[in-house]
Automatic annotation (TrEMBL):
The protein's name in its UniProt record: Flp pilus assembly protein, pilin Flp
InterPro entries: Flp_Fap
Organism (species): Saliniramus fredricksonii
Listed transmembrane segments: 20-38
Record keywords, A-Z: Membrane, Transmembrane, Transmembrane helix
One Pfam family from the record: Flp_Fap
Length: 64
């Protein structure tokens, strides 16, 4: 049993794939967090534009 455990601890054949999976998971978390932040800003921008367009349509011509 000790020999099997020692051999498993020293086997590095699958470690590269595991490392890439961890890197991909961390990158996915960073991208998701960034998208959430940017999404909130875009939502706010669309609200601002929508409000200004609605006010411009109700008030007629815009002031220079």
């Amino acid at each position: 049993m000790r020999a099997l455990l020692a051999r498993a601890m020293n086997d590095e054949s699958g470690s590269t794939a595991t490392e890439y999976a961890v890197i991909a998971a961390v990158m996915a978390i960073v991208v998701a967090a960034g998208a959430r932040s940017v999404g909130a800003e875009i939502f706010e921008l669309y609200g601002f534009v929508s409000t200004n367009i609605a006010e411009a349509l109700q008030g007629g011509e815009a002031e220079p």
